[in-house]
């Protein structure tokens, strides 16, 4: 019998309101895999169609779009849309960080949903010294990191559109803030299925 495996985040994508990728972060074991950047770019691009379908739903209550689609028995894409049209997509790897097929534990409906409005800077230290967000879930933490990026006076969202990139204004649409990139990496590395905190 295969050992139980705890799902982990394989990829986090931040997609602009014009369907342009603003940031894509890969996590182990996919980070060094050949062709992984292209593969996850395709996965995130395919998720855009589901984002569009879900956005048309007038009965939608919150920003959490839930499971967008399952790629196979290993990967699934979950979505969240901000009020400004920016989208966050998280690709979960049901085989975990080791990338070894096992008995996946799966995830419950609310494990990616926000559960509190605690500030992301409230970090508790574990015995190993790794910081974990207290009572914070993946999408809320991503949204908070993005809001902090927007509060930066040197970040101009309009410079991150396809039109700005076409006329050589802006940085081609990619988010280059080191602080934001570090926060996304921290979120992706610390989230675990079933954990009360990330």
What does this structure look like?
It contains four helices and nine strands. It is α+β, with helices and mostly antiparallel strands and 198 residues long. A five-stranded antiparallel beta sheet has the order 3-2-6-5-4, with helices on both faces. The protein has a two-stranded parallel sheet with strand order 1-7. The chain has a two-stranded antiparallel sheet with strand order 8-9. Strand 2 and strand 3 form a beta hairpin. Helix 2 runs antiparallel to helix 4 (178-190). The longest helix is centred in the first third of the chain and has 20 residues, at 36-55.
What is the structure about, briefly put?
The protein is of the alpha+beta class and 198 residues long. The protein has 4 helices and 9 strands; from the N terminus they run E-E-E-H-E-E-E-E-E-E-H-H-H.
List keywords for this structure.
single chain, 198 residues, alpha+beta, five-stranded antiparallel sheet, two-stranded parallel ribbon, 23% strand
- Gyration radius (Cα, Å) is 17 Å
| Largest sheet descriptor | 5 strands, antiparallel
Q: Percent of residues in beta strands?
A: 15-25%
Helix content: 25-40%
Write out the strand line-up for the largest beta sheet, numbering strands in chain order: 3-2-6-5-4
Oligomer class: single chain
- The tally of strands reads 9
Span between termini: 29 Å
Give the uncertain stretches in residue-range form: 113-136
What's the topology here?
Layout: E1 4-5, E2 8-15, E3 21-26, H1 36-55, E4 64-70, E5 75-81, E6 87-93, E7 103-104, E8 123-125, E9 131-133, H2 138-151, H3 162-166, H4 178-190
Parallel strand pairs: 1-7
Antiparallel strand pairs: 2-3, 2-6, 4-5, 5-6, 8-9
Helix pairs in contact: 2-4
